[in-house]
Amino acid sequence: KAGVTQTPRYLIKTRGQQVTLSCSPISGHRSVSWYQQTPGQGLQFLFEYFSETQRNKGNFPGRFSGRQFSNSRSEMNVSTLELGDSALYLCASSLGSGGKYFGPGTRLTVT
Amino acid sequence: DAKTTQPTSMDCAEGRAANLPCNHSTISGNEYVYWYRQIHSQGPQYIIHGLKNNETNEMASLIITEDRKSSTLILPHATLRDTAVYYCIVRVETGGGSNYKLTFGKGTLLTVNP
Predict the structure, then answer these.
(1) Which chain A positions have a beta carbon within 8 Å of B36's beta carbon?
(2) What CA–CA distance (Å, rounded) separates A107 from A95?
(3) Cα torsion through B37, B42, B43, B49, rounded to 10
(4) pLDDT score of B28
(5) Which residue of B has its CA nearest to A42?
(6) DSSP labels, chain A
(7) Quick one: CA dihedral B19, B105, A9, A31, positive or negative?
């Protein structure tokens, strides 16, 4: 079974722009969550979706948003990019109460 | 979620068992212990989880003390590819199964030496 895939893998944007990142979960997994990883703050939870509904949200500004489609694929969007948004963005999917399976991440650089 | 305490770093010789400790003294009765690891520049990898009983899978064993205030992840025969940051996480089982978040600490950097 294919793992979690994320596109694009690398991205360079300019301050003020917006960006959309995509995540395809493992087939059959209905829960998708997003995490941001930076050297200073480590891994931080952004939000989680299940059956197209946001179920949990972390402490990030409203510039960070996401959605999930009927096929469980998910996107996250960051508007009005800031230098501090440079990070590795990780998507994870899960089936039940077991572990979450992470994708390779999207490395976003904001200049 | 309960807070966890892990050593910042550990070393292990290749082929030997690696025993990674984790303290979670404020854990509640319905909170599970999860272990993940992250190899440099890759996404975290799920290893194992447990509630009360010891657990074993193809990757590792999880030993949880009877009072559940601490646990140990055991990699029976460490290889160089096991060099990674290992995270011990305690989370609440919500009953809905999939809906929970992971609160990562700083983890333990395990270095396996040849």
Answers:
(1) 99
(2) 25
(3) -20
(4) 87
(5) B106
(6) ----EEE-SEEEE-TT--EEEEEEPPTT--EEEEEEEETTTEEEEEEEEETTEEEEE-S--TTEEEEE-TTS-EEEEE-S--GGG-EEEEEEEESSSS--EE---EEEEE-
(7) positive
In the beta sheet, which residues pair with residue A19? Answer: A78
Q: pLDDT means per 10 residues in chain B (114 residues)?
A: 89 97 91 93 93 94 96 97 96 61 90 97
Spell out the residues 6+ positions from residue A45 whose beta carbon is closer than 8 angstroms to its own: A33, A34, A35, A56, A58, B101, B102, B103
With beta carbons less than 8 A apart as the criterion, state whether B48 and B64 touch: no
A58 vs A45: CA distance, rounded Å: 5
What's the CA gap between B69 and B88, in Å, rounded?
13
pLDDT-flagged residues of chain A (< 70): none
pLDDT of residue B53: 87
Please compute Rg for chain A using Cα positions.
13
C-alpha to C-alpha distance for A103 and A92, rounded to whole angstroms: 6
| Gap from B98 CA to chain A (nearest CA, Å) | 5
From B105's Cα to the closest Cα of chain A, the distance in A is: 8
